[in-house]
Structures are given as structure tokens and as C-alpha cells.
């Protein structure tokens, strides 16, 4: 066995251990594209719009450009690392190779927060749409959340083939719904009157024609956490590496095509949705179903319920695909011993990490219910959906910083690793990712409405790190990620010596 890093111990695992944790290869480039786009697309239906209340349309536009730059730097870096290290561990795998077991675990823990909480945000908005359709009260919302988790965790457990087929179908349907909205909205917009109707105090301006930056540049930067929602989770593609037929070839193609698709869609929804006559940025800044508001303004209330069914497709697409990612992320850390190993056992027929998906769903649902009952006086989209969104974004930003650092270390210290794809943005792209992610976190901490959520994530980190320090680091398993990291640790050491 290769030399072990200081402070950790490896347990020997026989072939039965890995047989019980087997995955099945299925995905091609378009399945991966759908996995990435599908994971994000709900952010074009709900969530992003809450940023309008923080900085107006102009502030949200500036924030979206900055976040798009961050994601371009991140995704091209991930495309390079994912092709070079095609393991299910993704972010944890990259950091494990570059920064050792502790770096790998902390990065994996950051990503874990993102993938457990992001489905919770999405199912919150699904419940909001369903409440509008069926006229249920706010107190009924937990029922929608529970049903959503049961249905889509169940679909993901059945098998990877079904998971990817559903992913492709719902992703295409979601894009079709957005396309219908764009075409419908273009003849029914008045940008200056409705998109520019927020004043410096955040109140609606009758007749519009308000300032481009009603809350100034600070307001634009305060929009950053919400602009993230237009791209959040595109980075999950490498989690499907061991279920991809040719990850070295298809992973970069899938993630780059996905990013280009999302940039186009984000541009269209940001411009058109607030501009629809009768909607406006001020109203959208408080809405739990902004796309439905747009459809309702164009087609009238009589078609509202039918349109709500249509609009919910995008949320379902992301909910389904991020549950897939959540399961693989927990599975990879569990298979390597960082999390309890029972979580990585796969279903005997479907070869899907069912324990990991069920556990992640239960944690996400528990946090939602906690917020629901502790914020009982205010069950609005801003109070619950905004808090969950910011918690997910905080975990994501920490993960992005760690992955960008991993990229820089791998470029400088592990240049000998074969790279089937090379990022055109290189180290400058990774540095841009780090800077914008840290600025986003800073402005999250400035917002007292969401600071408690950030503190909650910090507590999550503390519990996870304590577990790893006391238990996990003494029980690591030589999974594919760990073997790769140990092998290249020796090579890197030799290269430095020479």
C-alpha cells in the first residue's frame, strides 16, 4: 500500500464491500447536459426574483453578469478536473488529491450542505405553486414537501436508466415551458414602466421609470446570492462520472453546453419576466411563483391553474436531478469512509445509492420543518424560501472556493496528470471564481434576515468536522478517489524532490 497521510488510518475493504456499492454506467453527453441544465433550471422559474427586492432590476442585472463570470471560471476548471479525475467524488475528489484528506473532507462537507439544502429550496417553491393550484393554506405546505420527496426519491432509487431518462424528458419540457413564456412575453412587455418600478426605499413606483440602481452598487452586490440561483448546481456533473460511459470525453462537453444554455435562458428570463405588463420587478421581488405571475398577466386568471401545472415542470426537473446529485455526493464520501459506510450501499437491483438519497432527503426535510415551525408567524417565500436559498448558496460558495483552490494546486503541483481537456481560462478563471464567491459570502453575512441561516450552516460544518476528527479519519477506505490521491501524492513528492 502507498504511504498513508499523517493523521488518518485506512481500513482494508474486500471485494464484497465494493460489490455492495456498485454503480452502473449509462450516461452520454446529452444525458450529462440534461443533468446539469435540469439541476439549475428551477432557478429560472423561482428564487432568482427575490434579489429584485435587494437591488432592483439594474442591481440584479449587474449581479447576474458577475455570477456568470464566476460560473464560467468554475465550470471550465471543473471540466478540466472532472476529465482528469473521473470519480463520483467530484469536488471532494479534486480537493482530496490536491489538499489531502482534511481538504477533501471539508470540501465535500461544503458541497454536502449545497446538495442537501438545494432540493429543500426547490420543493418549497413546488409547494408554493401547488398551493396556488389547489388553493391550500400555508399550514398545508409540509404535506406537499413530504409528497415531493417521496415521489422523486422513489424515482431515483428505481435505477440510473430511469433517472437519466426522466432527467432528459423533464429538462426538455422545462426549456419548452420557458420558450413558450419568452415568445408569449415579447409582445406584452414594457421594460421602463414595469421592470424599472422599484424606488430607493424598495417600494413600487407608480408608472415606473425608476433609477437603474435604486439601492446603489451595494444593492447590486446584495443581489449576488440570488443571482447564483440562475446557475447553482451546474457543477454537479462530475458526480455522475462513474455512471458516464466516457467521462473523459463527455464530461467537458456536457458541462460547457449546459453553461451556454443557462446563460441564454438567464438573460431571457431576467429581461422578460419583470417587464411583463401588469407584473413588475417590485411585485416579483416578493413572489414565490414569478413565472406563473408572468403567465397570469399575459393569459389572465382563468388559465392560471393550467399554467401553474405547466410552470411547475421546471421545478420538478431540478428537484429530480439534484436528488440524484445529493445521493452520489453522500455516497462518495461514505464509500471512502468519511461518512458512515452504510450510506454508500447501493440498491441490489437499481444499483442506486438509496440509503444516501433517503438520508439526505430526511435531513433536508427536517431543516424545512424546523424553519416552518420556528418562523410560524411568517411563512412567506422571503422568510422560508429565502433563508433556505441563502443557506444553500453559502455552502456552495465555500465549495467553489475550495474547488478553485484545488484547480490551482493541481495545475501547479500536479502538472504531470493527464488532462483530456484543458480550461482556456486557466488559473485566472479560478482566481475570479474565488474572488466573486468570497464577495457573495460577505454580502450574505451583511443581510440580517439570512445571517441566522449562515450560522446554521456553520454549525453543520462544526458537527461534521468534529465527527471526522473523532471517528471518520480513523476509518477511511481505499475507494477509487483515495487510491488515485495516494498514488499522485507520491508522484508529487517525487517531482518536488527532483
Automatic annotation (TrEMBL):
Domain of life: Bacteria
InterPro entries: AA/rel_permease1, APC_superfamily
Localization: Cell membrane
Keywords tagged on the record: Cell membrane, Membrane, Transmembrane, Transmembrane helix
Residues spanning the membrane: 26-45, 57-79, 115-136, 142-159, 166-186, 212-234, 255-283, 303-325, 355-375, 381-410, 422-443, 449-470
PANTHER family (UniProt xref): AMINO ACID TRANSPORTER-RELATED, MEMBRANE PROTEIN
Protein name (database record): Amino acid ABC transporter permease
Organism of derivation: Sinorhizobium saheli
